[in-house]
Design a protein that fits this description.
The structure is a homotrimer of 137-residue chains. Chain A has three helices and eight strands. The first copy, chain A, is an alpha+beta fold. The first copy, chain A, has a single domain, classed as YjbQ-like (Jelly Rolls, Sandwich), CATH 2.60.120. The relative contact order of chain A is 0.39. Chains in contact: A-B, A-C, B-C.
Chain lengths: 137, 137, 137
């Protein structure tokens, strides 16, 4: 039987927030020893990534790359009524992920040593985001 | 026990087609109350995205961005025998998704309010595409 | 009950390696007839893609596009101590996938005719990479 949990994250605006521990806690508290933990974000202007967790500069550089590749206020975009960062946020969400499944092994999330799970807020203003974790095994 | 369904979509050429209702119907007709619905596209020049469903201009702008980032007929490409839009279609597919898992909660797909599930046809000519839905719970 | 396997791949440096057969073998050897095979890579500078398997030039062109879009040694990047290809490798991993779920139908991976599953090494030097396969059904 699948087990599901939901939690909210208040973001301070654009950038990444480590949610590894919160998801790991749900996995430990479940009785699933082997299976999958699916992490899902119910939004289209924030997303999920797995990324190196040792040097925070990696995520700063990722942000620099995305800011250059999908510039805010790009005159290419016509969906502009929600602000110059809204349409870029939708593109960034499509280029990254809304749903990531992670193996559960021996009752724990089997991430690599340097892998962290991050919520990526793409809007410049603070938002409240909802994450759902579904575990099957 | 997993439950699986398959359906075909005839695309009119490049662009997005909302498949949310078709997948939602399979989820409702299944007896899975809590779990995951995996949506999988068996092609490498069409893909899947979760995207804002309120303003269609969002997907038009996404298309504009992809057309600029991965231009048809780019002289960079050497795999050109299937047409100037074929290699860009493969790159677009890799940048988006071929497989998306969506939570099933209370027997329904738990998408966000503004989240739609779309088949993204990347070829300029019409194609017939196959989507497979696998539900586990 | 989920079934899990793990295998290592020695990469010769940047490029794609077909892992379809190895994953398919795990699926055949399992007793799951219908479900999902999740493939997960425990690294942040190598990733997974589903891509056309007929013409190897498609993956060469994909590499050309990524090399241009995320150039090695880009002065934009500040995380440079692990080499000019390290930060681009992290960006490429985020743009592609670390986790892909593939339907299992009649005890086999239900890939499309032209779909291959590839490990994508993004570092220029050889590495040893770990892939975990989790099957649920």
């Amino acid at each position: 039987m699948a087990q599901q949990y939901q939690f909210n994250v208040s973001t301070p605006g654009r950038g990444t927030i480590d949610i590894t521990r919160q998801v790991e806690q749900f996995v430990r508290e479940s009785d699933i020893q082997a299976g999958l933990a699916n992490v899902f974000i119910s939004h289209t202007s924030a997303s999920l990534i797995l990324c190196e967790n040792a040097d925070a500069m990696v995520r700063t550089d990722l942000e620099s790359w995305l800011s250059r590749a999908v510039p805010d206020g790009d005159r290419l975009f016509r969906h502009t009524m929600e602000g110059p960062d809204d349409m870029p946020a939708h593109v960034r969400s499509v280029l990254t992920a809304s749903s990531i499944s992670i193996p559960i092994v021996n009752g724990r999330m089997a991430l690599g040593t340097w892998q962290g799970l991050y919520l990526y807020e793409h809007r410049t203003e603070p938002h409240r985001r909802t994450i759902r974790v579904t575990m099957v095994g």
